[in-house]
Amino acid sequence: MKHYPLEIQKRHMYRLHCKDPKIESACRRLSCVFPDICENMGTDHGPLVQLYRKARTLPGIKKILIGSGVRYDLAVKSPEYVRELVSHHVGGYLKIAPEHIAEGPLAKMMKPGMGAYYKFKELFEKFSKEAGKEQYLIPYFISAHPGTTDEDMLELALWLKANSFRLDQVQNFTPTPMAMASAMYHTGKNPLRKISRKGEEVPIPKSGRARRLHKAFLRYHDPENWPLLREALKQMGRTDLIGGSKKHLVPAWQPAGTGRPANSRRPETGRGTARTQHTQDRPRAARRAK
Ligand code: SF4
């Protein structure tokens, strides 16, 4: 069986592969796309575009929609592919998974930086406009992933607020068998680097409070989370983010009948998937179209 590095196997990368079989057979990199896209990686999405076109002509096929799974850092290398995808295969919404915006957790997830997300967003919006379609990108994020600090989650919460994203459902990272992140979770070390006693330590948000807090940052707009967020912001020396104006993350007041105490031990809900679902503030008509 042909060996493909980790990332190649996981996502929609039809016929994207190493340019040279000899180099490929000797290659020991964990990923062709992290920390950056390998210079030997073929990023031509032409065969995938042809596949889409062929599939559309099959008898009985009315519409082929792609809802998620696009590896956007590779897609931006082929704007023609993004045009094809956006013009014919997006049904109003496309989920993509930046997972985080802070470099620390992104490096532990082997994910690209936000530069690729912004580039893809630009192409997505440009080609949607050209096609005369109103459609939206839905980015997914993860909370409490190994390598994530409270400050990273605060940075993400501020980004969500600045971009008017309000997450509907949120689930924390859960370690699963055979995952690199699970090794980090259980050892507190970074297996992407040399393992030794002095090897890189990875911050693990394991305690109940840390996990609740990270989740709460993703749902900064939910009054139930405000007591915990206020307490954390005070501990982080960020009382400047508590108040009633747009520049604040949470208000200083609490609506009657809401707000779990900051030390609440309510169990987390949900298991398995580590991603989030959310909606962005957007025109009412667009929300109805969902
Ligand atoms: S040389 Fe680069 S493209 Fe080829 S298999 Fe290794 S990482 Fe992937």
Quick summary:
It is built from 12 helices and 4 strands, in the order H-H-H-H-H-E-H-H-E-H-E-H-H-H-E-H.
Largest sheet: 2 strands, parallel
What's the average pLDDT?
87
Ligands bound here? Answer: iron/sulfur cluster
Provide the domain count.
1
Detailed description of the structure:
The protein has 290 residues and is mainly alpha-helical. It has one domain (31-216, 272-288). The protein has 12 helices and 4 strands, in the order H-H-H-H-H-E-H-H-E-H-E-H-H-H-E-H. Helix 8 packs parallel to helix 10. The longest helix has 17 residues, at 114-130. It is globular and about 60 Å long. Residues 5, 18, 23-24, 27, 29, 32, 38, 40-41 line the site of iron/sulfur cluster.
Key terms:
two-stranded parallel sheet, 8% strand, globular, disordered N terminus, disordered C terminus, binds iron/sulfur cluster
